[in-house]
Amino acid sequence: MFSKRFSTERPLTVAVLGASGAVGHELLQLLDERSFPIGELRLLASERSAGNLQSWKGSMLKVHEITNESLQGVDLVLASAGGSVSRKWRQEIHDAGAVMIDNSSAFRMDSEVPLVVPEVNPDDAFGHKGLIANPNCTTILLALALAPLSAYIPMKRVVVSTYQSASGAGARAMEELKELSQEVLNGGKPKNQVLPYSLAFNLFLHNSPLQGNGYCEEEMKMVNETRKILGLPDLPFTATCVRVPVLRAHSEAVNIEFSKPFPVNEARAILMDAQGIELIEDFDTNRFPMPSDVTGRDEVAVGRIRQDISCPNSLEFWLCGDQIRKGAALNAIQIAELLLETS
Prior knowledge:
- This protein is an alpha/beta fold.
- It folds into two domains: 12-135 and 328-338, 3-Layer(aba) Sandwich (Rossmann fold), CATH 3.40.50; 139-323, Dihydrodipicolinate Reductase, domain 2 (2-Layer Sandwich).
- The protein is built from nine helices and 15 strands.
- It has helices at 22-33, 68-71, 83-95, 137-152, 171-185, 217-230, 264-273, 291-294, 325-338; strands at 12-17, 38-45, 53-56, 59-62, 64-65, 76-79, 99-102, 131-133, 155-164, 204-205, 237-243, 249-258, 277-279, 300-307, 314-322.
- It has a seven-stranded mixed β-sheet with strand order 10-11-9-12-15-14-13. It has a six-stranded parallel β-sheet with strand order 5-2-1-6-7-8, with helices on both faces.
């Protein structure tokens, strides 16, 4: 039977499921950077990706196909191999006594599964039954900013537009953006294969499946996951998600209506002190967060905090965050760190 916390009396056996992908690479880097207590590291993947080699701490490790045998003795599974793989192996991972922190959307809205951003709702992690869901990337970045503000003055409505990088569609989409951009610069006509349209010098509305209400799946992920994380199931929330030609950092334009006026200087002070947030704004030089400010970094950058001139109770701001790092891998490892027993 799994334990809800990890004992620090011995190093852990950790499996990274989906080690060959962009998030898998980032997980390996962060496990090293953050000195996570690992006695044995196992790199696992579906049959298609098994056999690849990955570098970790100066050594080359082989990626093995996930099997019941490969899960024996594992304490923690960091899963980033897609929803179908996570669903297929959920019970086997549980039966092996391991805790799974899952980066897919498979279990996020399951009422029995905690959905956690450690800076926002850390206590939820301790109610797990062997499985904790890692939120959608855009949700994680947004929740960091919403939570401290809504704790000060209750929110009445949230409106968000996202500007999502190629990394949200995986490593192959990032490579396609590079290749097709060069093709355009060379005078050719880009021919997309990974994304539904060429992202080279282009943008398009998020291509996740459209729902019956006219919103796409990605937009509804933001709505439903944010409500769950903040414990506000009836929060009025609308989102428009756009894919843009940026490699690996997402941006969001955020408008929040509060229950009463929220002085800008007070909001700025709250965000400056908020965990995981960095303020970047200089109104004199028109300098605010950019994807290049956060690429490869842990912090979510917020700026251009201002009064909404159309509504006295509303504020607007802009944020950028590394989708692969805080939007996926870092958040997962921070969840695992919550479960480490401390004396």
